[in-house]
Amino acid sequence: MFDIGWSELLLIAAIAIIFVGPKDLPKMMRTVGQYVAKVRGIAREFQSSFDELARETELEELRKEVASLKNHATKPLRSLQDEIIKPVKIGGGGAGADAAAASAARAEEEKAEAERLDTSSVSDGIAASIREAEEIEAFGASDPAAPAAMTGQSRE
Fold first, then answer.
1. pLDDT in tens, 59-79
2. How far apart are CA 73 and CA 69, in angstroms?
3. The overall pTM is greater than 0.90
4. Which one of 105, 106, 146, 154 has the lowest number of neighbouring Cβ atoms within 10 Å?
5. Nearest to 81 by CA among 155, 141, 153
6. Which DSSP string do the residues of 43-109 spell out, in sequence order?
């Protein structure tokens, strides 16, 4: 790194003995060693903070990528669901409403199946993160107040 040879080290040692003196030389070397240790510690801390920042940036990019993949995969299903639910809202009842409700139930099942992303092309850690996110969203979707709000009925 510095390319210092043995002859240069002997010259530095001779100058240190002359100017500092043999009596104070061990004290000076101890002080220099302490400063070198402090500098190495600061450099280690600096490097670890950069590594942590890189990991956080990578995780944020991964979250954005998973969200965009999920939005891209569920976009056609959402439009299909809107088309299926539209006749139920317009119709007043009867056989057409029953068929539309059954069709909507099938669409919900297909939507749930399609929302499970294909994780065969990603690493195990990323696949586990995707499954965890899907479970969290599924838990939020199974809110007991949601069906009453969708049908316009109260839970009372």
1. 888 888 888 888 888 888 888
2. 6
3. no
4. 154
5. 141
6. HHHHHHHHHHHHHHHHHHHHHHHHHHHHHHHHHHHHHHHHHHHHHHHH--SSHHHHHHHHHHHHHHH
